[in-house]
Amino acid sequence: MEKGQEIYEGKAKKLYSTTNPELIIVCYKDDATAFNGLKKGTILGKGIINNKMSNLLMQHLEKIGIPTQFVRELNDRETLVKKVRIIALEVIVRNIAAGSFAKHYGVEEGIVFEHPTIEFSYKNDALGDPLLNEEHALALKLVSKEELALIKKYSFKINDVLKAFWKECAVTLVDFKLEFGKLTDGTIILADEISPDTSRLWDSKTGEKLDKDRFRFDLGRVEEAYAEIFKRLEAHT
Ligand code: UDP
């Protein structure tokens, strides 16, 4: 397996082909964006942390029966992953009100839900990733009914597992975004990343935000928050 050409550059990652058509290499950058690309910046060392964190969490999820894209970590910033066709559906699971939920529904951040919520948005930057419901996703043929049921089942299971995992690290899992992809045989697997870029993580004791909200809202100590969350994760794996 050898690294080939760059095939895609996204906001936080680059993708490279490999000599194996079923595998690609993902390279995590330090670039950060927020508010649909309106705010741009750099979080030094973020690419390394997100690469390693995502890989550790995906391996943990594999162990409990969630199929993922992860194959092998190659170096600090690069990982070999299964090539998938990304399903144009972003899945957001929430345990606590924050971010756009608090804004849309006019509630305070920090309200703990009795049951987690799930919502979907259409992965389409030009349209600003609009929210959609299950029937909309079916109408747009983003997924079949069976695929959607499986994606929901996986997402809630992932929430249960990650919530418990982060709790042991004295971190509260507030919410997170998942993306799924399809292998050529139609199998649905977890794709993209699980990191402080895509999750809200609060210190369980102090409530301090240890995620990308520090960058979004200029809260300072951004690099320190990423490093702190990674330190706690590593201590627990
Ligand atoms: N999220 C993400 N990518 C997106 C939108 C949201 O990774 O394009 C993550 C975000 O980091 C948070 C969760 O999904 O952990 C819920 O985000 P929310 O809908 O509250 O949107 P935001 O406030 O980030 O605009």
- Tell me the number of helical segments per DSSP (H or I, 4 or more residues long): 6
Q: Main beta sheet, described?
A: 6 strands, antiparallel
Query: Strand-residue fraction?
Result: 25-35%
At the fold tier of CATH, the topology name of the largest domain is: D-amino Acid Aminotransferase, Chain A, domain 1
Report the end-to-end length measured between terminal Cα atoms. 28 Å
Structural class: alpha+beta
Q: How many beta-strand segments?
A: 13
Q: What is the class of the largest domain in the CATH system?
A: Alpha Beta
Proportion of residues in helical segments: 25-40%
Question: Can you tell me the CATH architecture of the largest domain?
Answer: 2-Layer Sandwich
Taken in chain order, the helices and strands follow as EEEEEHEEEHEEHHEEEHH
How would you describe the shape?
Answer: globular
CATH superfamily of the largest domain: ATP-grasp fold, B domain
pLDDT averaged residue by residue = 97
Number of domains: 2
Q: Can you tell me the residue ranges where pLDDT is under 50 for at least 5 consecutive residues? A: none
What is the C-alpha radius of gyration, as a whole number of Å?
17 Å
Bound ions, cofactors and other small molecules, one mention each = uridine-5'-diphosphate
Q: Could you characterize the architecture of this molecule?
A:
This protein has 237 residues and is an alpha+beta fold. The chain has 6 helices and 13 strands. The protein has 2 domains: 80 residues, 2-Layer Sandwich (Phosphorylase Kinase, domain 1); 135 residues, ATP-grasp fold, B domain (D-amino Acid Aminotransferase, Chain A, domain 1), CATH 3.30.470. The radius of gyration is 17 Å and the shape is globular. Uridine-5'-diphosphate (UDP) binds next to α2, β11 and β13.
